């Protein structure tokens, strides 16, 4: 299957992306958006950048990430790993999304700092 690219915003040319890329884009969108600010999805959003340098414990951040990425019906399960960057104002996560259709898992790497977020989909 294919879908229209929506990351970092809706592609003005309505370019098509694979379902793998679409699932990754949807997961990342949820992790960059304030809770309740996704159009049509008032119960979604977990902006990771808000937790940089906060006293929020890793288990709570991990739970928030898992909650958001598994809201997509195309994702059956997920795993989240943190890479320690040694800085309170930066965060690096590796996320493995187990697809509901049994296809290969999707591996995301997110590097977040106070200014930007970088995403790699493998």
Fraction of helical residues: 10-25%
SSE class: alpha+beta
CATH topology: Nuclear Transport Factor 2, Chain: A
CATH architecture: Roll
Number of domains: 1
- Mean pLDDT across the residues is 82
Order of helices and strands: EEHHEEEE
| Shape assignment | globular
How would you describe this protein?
This protein is α+β, with helices and mostly antiparallel strands. The chain has a single domain (2-121), classed as Nuclear Transport Factor 2, Chain: A (Roll), CATH 3.10.450.40. Helices cover 21% and strands 31% of the residues. It contains two helices and six strands, in the order ββααββββ. It has helices at 19-32, 58-69; strands at residues 2-4, 16-18, 75-83, 90-99, 106-113, 117-121. The strands form two sheets. It has a four-stranded antiparallel beta sheet with strand order 3-4-5-6, covered by helices on one side. The protein has a two-stranded antiparallel sheet with strand order 1-2. It is globular. The mean pLDDT is 82.
């Amino acid at each position: 299957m294919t879908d229209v690219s929506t990351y970092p915003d809706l592609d003005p040319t309505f370019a098509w992306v694979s379902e793998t890329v679409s699932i990754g884009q949807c997961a990342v969108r949820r992790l960059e958006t304030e809770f309740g600010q996704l159009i049509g999805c008032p119960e979604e959003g977990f902006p990771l950048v808000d937790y940089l340098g906060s006293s929020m414990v890793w288990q709570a951040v991990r739970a928030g990430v898992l909650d958001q990425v598994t809201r997509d019906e195309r994702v059956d399960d997920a795993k989240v790993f943190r890479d320690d960057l040694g800085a309170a104002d930066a965060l690096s996560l590796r996320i493995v999304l187990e697809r509901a259709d049994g296809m290969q898992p999707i591996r995301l790497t997110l590097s977040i700092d106070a200014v930007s977020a970088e995403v790699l989909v493998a």
